Structure formats: C-alpha cells, structure tokens
Amino acid sequence: MARGKIGVALGGGVARGWAHIGVLKALEKAGIRPDVVAGTSIGAVAGGCYVSGKLDLLEDFARSLTRRKVFGFLDFNLAGTGLISGDKLYDLLNLHLGTQQIEALDRKFTAVATEIGTGHEVWLSRGGLIEAMRASYALPGIFKPIKLDGRWLFDGAIVNPVPVSVCRAMGASVVIAVNLQHDVFGKGTVLIDSRPDGMGVAALPPPKEENGSKGGALRLLHRQFFGQGNDTPGISTVMMEAFNITQDRIARSRLAGDPPDFTISPRLGSFGAFDFHRADEMIAAGAAATERALADIRPALPELA
Known about the structure:
By secondary structure, this protein is an alpha/beta fold. It has helices spanning about 20-30, 40-50, 55-65, 65-75, 85-95, 130-135, 165-170, 215-225, 235-255, 280-295, and strands spanning about 5-10, 35-40, 110-115, 120-125, 145-150, 150-155, 175-180, 260-265.
C-alpha cells in the first residue's frame, strides 16, 4: 500500500505569520515532515522558505527585527499601486533564494494568489519561487501587485485564507491547517446602536502641520501609517482591520466547507498585524500551539507510515 501524504496549509496573518516558523519546527521535531505545503500570504513566505531549506534563515531574520528595522524595510512609494514597493524585501529574498524554481523542490509547494479584476483564485505551483511568494503576500493597497503570466496578482488571503483545499488537490491524505486568525474570531458579532438620542460620532482630529523638510514629511507619513499615538487609528490599522474582518469571514466559510483533519491555532490575539519585531513571542506561540495539537495528531501517524 502506498504511503499516505501529509499536507500543511499555512494561513495568512501578516506579522502573525512568524508563528508558522514555530509550528513547522515543532512538527519536524515531532518527526512529522509534510509532503505537501500550501501557503497563503505570509504563509507562502514561511512555506516557501521551509520547502527550500531556508527556514532557519527566515527565523534568524525575523528574530533580528526591531521597530526601526521594520520601518526601514517599508520603502514607501506613493506614486505607485501600493504604499510600499517591496523592493527591499524582494532583494533580501533574492539574496537567499535566487532563481529557485518551485518544480525543482523536493516537495510539492503551492502559493495562493488572487487575480485583480476577475477575483480568480490562482495556484502558483510552477516557476520562480520568489515571484510566487511576492504575489501571494502583496497586500492590497500596501504592496504593489505582481504581474505573472499576463495576470496582475495580489494577496491570496482575499479568496483562500487557509488553503486546505490546495493541499487536498495536491494529493494530501491528511491535512494540518495552521489558522492564525483563531484568536481574532468574534469579529462577526452584531451590535445594535445604543447611543442616546442626539449623541453623534466624534470627529477625528485634523493632522498637525509639518514643515516642508524631508524629515518632516517622513514623520508625517509614519504617523499616518502607524497612527498618531492616541486613539486615532493609522492607515495600516484601518486597512488591516478591514482585511482581517474579511479574512475571518471567508476563513470560516472555507474551513466549514472543506475542513482540515487537524487545526493548529496559535494564540495571537495580542499581536498586531505589523508587530514584525515581536517574532520571539510569536514563534514561541506557534510552537506551543503545535505541542497542544500533537496529542491529537500523533495517533494518526501510523496510518501514514
């Protein structure tokens, strides 16, 4: 009898994706080496580095990040189709992955992206690994979209936040899903307006004037992107909250229609979408969640041997 295949579906979650590193290393430590890996958004980055043997390099990079270094990677490009060009991150990936082709990997790998205009779910399982990863993590409005084979592509989490269906299609007998949105569930609650009559919504304060220097412009851009230090949300918070709510709703629907055999759900509710500098904590959360799930996963392993 042919050995069954193990698939791992790595979900989207922006900075929370560092938890995937802890998950994958904990699975390897437990003797579970997936045959099939599918990733969406940051899950495609972690999965691509994993199958190409570069997960340790990704971990070292993640753990080295500080707030200042994170901002240094944000190469703002207000004249383009995204706030950030992503060229600095691409250069870093290119340094370590170069011209690696997906079909040359020793395990099956697919990155999920979304086609602009049609909304088609695009599975990238051939061609350049870096290009597939870039297309999958191109957050709408944040990173510029990527053109591949005549299609303009951006973040795959818009259509398939946790790509269980991709693992099934690639032949996985057992699928382990890593859902980074578990702790942000509850966004579907409906609240009835209970404000007293005549009570309006407070207006946002106008931005303070800045001088025309380059430094002043960068400070203003920084505050607009990350927030002004009070209760006023920045552009990144507004966009990511909208994205997370949509992703949460879609993930519930997709997982209900095509449930995984096992789910690993790191506790990440206290981490923001751009908390890339908190990798140590998120990697630990991923490892801890995997240890909790292994009690259920291990009994299934003899059937796959």
